[in-house]
Amino acid sequence: xxxxxxxxxxxxxxxxxxxxxxxxxxxxxxxxxxxxxxxxxxxxxxxxxxxxxxxxxxxxxxxxxxxxxxxxxxxxxxxxxxxxxxxxxxxxxxxxxxxxxxxxxxxxxxxxxxxxxxxxxxxxxxxxxxxxxxxxxxxxxxxxxxxxxxxxxxxxxxxxxxxxxxxxxxxxxxxxxxxxxxxxxxxxxxxxxxxxxxxxxxxxxxxxxxxxxxxxxxxxxxxxxxxxxxxxxxxxxxxxxxxxxxxxxxxxxxxxxx
Amino acid sequence: xxxxxxxxxxxxxxxxxxxxxxxxxxxxxxxxxxxxxxxxxxxxxxxxxxxxxxxxxxxxxxxxxxxxxxxxxxxxxxxxxxxxxxxxxxxxxxxxxxxxxxxxxxxxxxxxxxxxxxxxxxxxxxxxxxxxxxxxxxxxxxxxxxxxxxxxxxxxxxxxxxxxxxxxxxxxxxxxxxxxxxxxxxxxxxxxxxxxxxxxxxxxxxxxxxxxxxxxxxxxxxxxxxxxxxxxxxxxxxxxxxxxxxxxxxxxxxxxxx
Lengths: 258, 258
Prior knowledge:
The structure is a homodimer.
Chain A: E1 5-9, H1 17-27, E2 31-37, E3 56-59, E4 69-73, H2 77-88, E5 95-102, H3 109-112, H4 114-124, E6 129-134, H5 147-160, E7 166-172, E8 182-185, E9 191-201, E10 207-217, H6 225-230, E11 233-240, H7 249-252
Parallel strand pairs in A: 1-2, 1-5, 2-4, 5-6, 6-7, 8-11
Antiparallel strand pairs in A: 3-4, 7-11, 9-10
């Protein structure tokens, strides 16, 4: 059987240790083709580049991992997937992998996540996709502990297929592989960020702000990604891009809109 | 009864005719407070500014519309809502309105939409919110035809309340008010964009790309926003930010993940 073709991208940029780890894990499973941002794109959500030009530069520094081809792209994670699928790859990949993100994309973070926007873009284009994130935002995070779990999830996705219209949001606790208790399929926990704007004055006397905040979990369910991670499990949330709140249609239909 | 406090934002920037129209329509309903991007942010998805500073500048040019306060913000639409709610407003608004966007945000466009990211951000923070878009991307689009419908939707949302965890994605066909057949509550149509990358060479001989594409509707349902718009109705899609594909959890639980 032919080896699967795997497109790898991320949002921390092509030089991040997290994508290097994912390339190395994926290379043991299939042929890896990389299209990743040339600079960090964290917090970019599902941004795409429509008002400026895109560049994609072929690079060769990743060949030691068994990578066939790697491109560094000037765009966002969603741009990387679009240009990878439509322009740079000769055939449709069997799966798109995004990450490993340096930091959590669990719960409401999925909305702001460049890592997950790449996976969602692939899903929209009909390609199975998984986003991986490690709950450790440091550059020197130890991705090796997650290897066997990540490879298991990729292999199972290739074997079983991911349902249409769904991509996987995988978050990994910051634990050694011995300490990780297993893998749980979860729902997205309800939460938001309590923003704090750090207001400062520029040397010219003009106010400016840094956005900071604290994560505020609003959900005590034992079926959520936050619960699984706190208990030492890897969380897998099947994530969709049909945003319709089907349960609310009946309610809004009672409004006087005639 | 006190007039409702209405926060207005958009993604085309504070100078766009679409937001000027929305400010004018909303001023007849409540007290309007504006925080909008200082430059166009189309296609920004749910991007937020975490690696650079944010500026918010008080401006007075909007006072003729009855606007109490307006700020021009250097950030994305989601940033505008965050800084508006947490830093610039003294109290929680009764509703957040985003738009009127110059161009459609129906179907899969919701994922890429800065207009809807502002509404979703408000929803995440527990404030009722509606994004409005007119299916006419030109700068000189005629927003006045939609006035009575937009005011009806705002008034009904204020009166009935929008269900928790839901924001409204309202799209308006490019028709006169006489031609508009009414308002339909819909689901998001399945669709994607068939990208075409327009590849060019720079004066320095380097390849670069412009992202273009064609909308590809994959859904014949008569309960979708695309169907409603094509038939001459305004579409209202209740939109959620819990992205969990609940129906897929059982399927993924059959995988060998132990």
